[in-house]
Amino acid sequence: RDIGVTGVQTCALPISIQFLIIRMKTFFPITLTCLFLFSSLEGFTQTVVNFSGKWTLNLSKSDPVKDIISQTDIITQGVNDITFDRNISPNSTIKVSGKTTYILDGEERETSDNEITRRVSAKWSNDKQSITINTILIKSNNGIILETKRTDSYNLINNGKTLMKTTKYFLIKNGISIDDGKETKMVFEKN
Asked: Phi/psi of residue 160, each to 5°?
């Protein structure tokens, strides 16, 4: 400072260098930490599996399926939903088709048709590599309540060329399980 002449500081260089050194010691580690965290997030980004396509049931690789001699599913996948357009042949003369869209948010939706109530929820796995669809069918008849609880899990294997569908279901009569649960696996090949 040149206090004797003007009373003001005439050279700020030593103060500025000291200020920069203090700031660098404080912010440099924080900056490095932030850069490390943001760059490491690339490893945690999730690739969402795409189930879209035409899939044909391979009976020779699947568990025995009652009343199905062929099945083709056309799957269309959106950002938050998935649609199954199914064509099933229970025998050589009959073909059954249907189209169902599921919202992949995990929330249960309920519909009723005549004597049957249907509750359905669908969601992604945490790693976005599989989809699980839970269905509860409730039918009341002459004071007897029958429930079918079913869980369908869809996974891609074989570099996305094979779709594995695992179905687990339980039958419940008036609140009491009447079986130990059954599991079937169906294998579909991409066309």
From this structure: 80, 5
